[in-house]
Amino acid sequence: MYTDLKGKIAVVTGGSKGLGASMAERFGAEGMSVVVNYHSDEEGAKKTKELVEKAGGKACAVKADVGTEEGIKALLDKALEEFGGLDVWVNNAGVENKAATDELSLEDWQKVIDTNLTGVFLGSQCAIRYFLEEEKQGSIINMSSVHEKIPWPTFAHYAASKGGVELFTKTIALEYADRGIRANCIGPGAINTPINKEKFDDPEQYESTVSMIPMGRIGDPEDVAAAAAWLASDQARYVTGTTLFVDGGMTLYPSFQYGEG
Ligand code: BGC
Fold first, then answer.
1. How far apart, in whole angstroms, are the C-alpha atoms of residue 214 and residue 10?
2. 72-102 pLDDT, tens per residue?
3. Which residue among 147, 213, 218, 246 is best mutated to probe the pocket of ligand 1, counting the most ligand atoms within 8 A of its Cβ?
């Protein structure tokens, strides 16, 4: 628990399930108020709202497309209206689909870039504008991936979006460091979330993923939520422009684990 987080206000995009829901719940446990954004899963967002409240925080659910300026504005408006401010903005909404690059449609490319990268730009910009106006030392957390570093065949659009998120985040961290605004990424590896359900339900794919994780297990959403709480807190006040990988070692060239090479 981080006592300075109590009473703080956060926006979490893509909060209806998975990592977003888990981060929102953890923020609730820290005594925070959370605007839980969702795109289409209203039921999921309602559940997250309940989780936040049960954990001890306050929450409201807001439907919005984070790839649009109106959608992003609706989230800030709600944070101000409902809770009276903004301290932490988490750009978490993300999508992925598998397609060989020679078969990848422009539509799928665009969808992934709009949500994963343009959404991060618009959300960050909105938070930065508010923090500047209010002279607030806010924190921005962008959900990246191990694939900001690791190339991922048949997910080129996804990897491109995450590589973009990394350098975008470093750039804004540098641009606004002198105003006390911090911006960091979390780079999850393979985590037990709905986005991965189909894959991990297949024993073969599950085993092959686990074999790429030096710590030998798939991560839990709570592992990522713990990183988000720390990055949001004052304990991370000197941390900006970095990616905190939460991946059980997946980015450490696992094929060398036992001295191969
Ligand atoms: C993806 C997961 C994948 C993991 C490791 C994440 O960014 O969302 O689907 O299992 O990277 O490859």
1. 33
2. 999 999 999 999 999 999 999 999 999 999 9
3. 147
Q: For this structure, is 38 an active site residue? A: no
DSSP 174-227: HHHGGGT-EEEEEEE-SBSSGGGHHHHHSHHHHHHHHTT-TT-SPBPHHHHHHH
Burial class (CB in 10 A: 0-12, 13-18, 19+), 259: exposed
Average pLDDT estimate for 12-23: 98
How far apart (Å, rounded) are the C-alpha atoms in residues 177 and 36?
27
Give CA separation, 187 vs 61, 143, 209, in Å. Answer: 25, 6, 16
The pTM of the full predicted model, rounded to 2 decimals, is 0.98
| Catalytic-role residue among 158, 176, 238, 253 | 158
Domain boundaries, the chain: 3-247
Residue-wise pLDDT tens digits, 143-176: 999 999 999 999 999 999 999 999 999 999 999 9
Q: 216 is written with which tokens? A: 């030998």
- CATH topology assigned to domain 3-247: Rossmann fold (3.40.50)
What is the DSSP secondary structure assignment for residue 9, as one 8-state letter? E
**Whole-number pLDDT of residue 135:** 98
Of 222, 246, 236, 240, the closest CA to residue 4 belongs to: 236
Place of tokens 């304990």: 235
189 CA from centroid of ligand 1 (Å)? 6
Measured in angstroms, how far is the CA atom of residue 188 from the centroid of ligand 1? 7
